[in-house]
Amino acid sequence: MREHRPRKGNWARRAGRAGVFAAAALTMLATVGAAYAAETNLHFTLDRKFEGPAAPLVLALDSGYYKAEGLNVSIDPAASVSEAVTRVASGDYDMGIADINVVIKHRDTNPNDAVKAVFVIYNRPAFAVIGRKSRGIKELKDLEGHKLGAPIDSDSFDLWPILVKANGIDASKVAIENIGFQVRTPMLAAGQVDAITGLSFSTYIDLKDRGVPADDIIVLPMADYGVVLYGAAIIVNSSFAEAHPDAVKGFLRAYLRGLKRTVAAPATALEHVMSRIDSGRKNLELERLKMVINHNIITPEVRANGYGAIDGERFAQGIDQLTLAYKFKEKPKLGEIFDPSFLPPAAERKLN
Q: Which domains does the chain have, with CATH numbers?
C-alpha cells in the first residue's frame, strides 16, 4: 500500500488561511491595545461619602459605560461640597458632583478658578428644614417661638433669608442656635432643638436610624416654600474640558445611561453602592436613594424637558434669590456657571 500524502494544493490553502487568521488576530489585538492605550484618565470626586444617591455614577462604572466611551474613570468620596468644588477648580480632579449654588458662590470669590456645571442632577435642591412634630413643628411658620439648630456657615442655612422673605416668617421670633455639622441630627433626635436645616434625604434617614419615629419627623423642603434654585450638578474643570471635550461628552452619556437605569430599578442600582460602603443598612440607603429620585431628580420640569439642562429664566430668578443671602461682587450670568454644550442631545435626555 502506498503511503497517503496530503495534496500540495490543499496544504498550501490551509497554510494560507492560517496566515490570514493569524494576521487578523494580530490586527484585532493591536486595535484593542491601541484603544486601551488611548483611554483618557478621568478623576471624579463625590461631594460626600458613598451613599445611595451615588448609584448612577457607580452603576455606570461597574457596567463598563465609561470604558465604552474610552474613559478610565476613578471615583473618590469627599468630606464636603466645598472640598469637591475646590478639588475640581484646582485641577486635582477633572470632574465631580457639587451643589451648583456652592459653585456660584465659589466663582464669585474665585473668578479665575476654571470650574463650571455641565449637567444638573437635582432639578430641585435637597435643602430642607427638618423638625419634629412632637416639638411643635408642623409647618414652616411654626418655627416662630421655637429653636432652630444650624451651622450658620452651612449651605442649607445660607438660604434662611430666602425662606424668611418668601414665607413671611418673623425671624426675630425664631431662636437660632449655632451648632456643629456632626451634632445637629443628634441634638434634634434628643429634643435639644425643635428643628434643623440640612439635606432632606440625609437628615430624615439619619433621624430614623437613631430611633426617631417616622411619623414624628416633618420634612419641609425649601423648594416647596419658594426656593427656585437648582441643586446638585456635575461639574468640570474648564481646562480639562477644553483639552478633552469628547471625554466630558462621553462621561455624560455614560452617566445618563446609569441614571436612567437607576430611576427604572433603584434596588438593583443600589447594589453597586452597597459594595463600597463599609457599614450601612441596605433598606435605609434604598429609602435615601428613592427620596432623591422622587423629590429632587424627577420633577415636572424634568418630565417636560428631560435630564440635565437649566431653564434660563428660572436660573435668573434663583440668582435674584441668592442676593438675599449672599452679596455678589458681580451678579453671575448663566453662561459663566453652566455650559450646556456637553449635554447629550435633547432626545436622549428625555425620560423613558
A: 40-123+230-349 (3.40.190.10), 127-225 (3.40.190.10)
